[in-house]
């Protein structure tokens, strides 16, 4: 089961952070069709947020046909977002872990690593367009 976390410094609303985390888990194969999302009550207890925030996120995911709510039972994944198996990502994960270790050895903190990655990602995307 997925465990949500919130980053108050991200500038992204809590409900969108939950939606993004579910989408990411679906892309990576961490959530599969039939898996149950945490109950609203559990998310509220773990994150200390308003239940309406969780409900809004789950409704958004329902609107995208990624999950379906079963009254009295819970919210379940109805489809994934990946065509490749999780095993196909293993070599890339290994390389990324090595890169992360090098970044930390170079003295970068998490925010700096994320900024460097996102800047490089965006620059590469722009170069691919050009």
UniProtKB/TrEMBL annotation:
GO terms for molecular function: DNA binding; DNA-binding transcription factor activity. Keywords: DNA-binding, Transcription, Transcription regulation. InterPro entries: Tscrpt_reg_HTH_GntR, WH-like_DNA-bd_sf, WH_DNA-bd_sf. SMART domains: HTH_GNTR. Gene3D superfamilies: Winged helix-like DNA-binding domain superfamily/Winged helix DNA-binding domain. Residues 12-80 form the HTH gntR-type domain. This is GntR family transcriptional regulator. It comes from Nonomuraea endophytica.
